[in-house]
Amino acid sequence: MDHEVSPWIPHYQLVVDVEVSDLRAGVQFVARTKTLSRIGCGIDTSFPIAKGANVRIKMYHQGAEIKAVARVVYSGPESGLGIVFTNIDRGNERILELWINELVN
Questions:
Q1: What is the Cα–Cα distance from 68 to 41, expressed in whole angstroms?
Q2: How does pLDDT run across 44-80, given as a tens digit for each residue?
Q3: Domains of the chain
Q4: Cα 49 to Cα 30: distance, rounded to the nearest angstrom
Q5: Residue 97 · residue 14 · CB < 8 Å
Q6: Which of 40, 73, 86, 90 has the most CB atoms lying inside 10 A of its own CB?
């Protein structure tokens, strides 16, 4: 999965714990999501990561975990991070779909 953030992709408000690891800088931190979509998420943090950086994320919700590699598409002290998934396996995609379906239904 490799997409740019699009206003046409539905984003849902979901706050879950997330670990973010900057693959190039070797920096890791814990934060919380603010939005979630099928192609990425918004993360509530003021921790600076450069736009275009590749990150590894782990999200935790209701006893389940999603792992993915992603790219930072926006970053700012007030806006947080916006990431788009670049590599997420089928099992993690299924968990993501379950989380989103719970929000929609």
A1: 11
A2: 998 889 999 999 999 999 999 999 999 999 999 889 9
A3: 12-104 (2.40.10.220)
A4: 13
A5: no
A6: 40
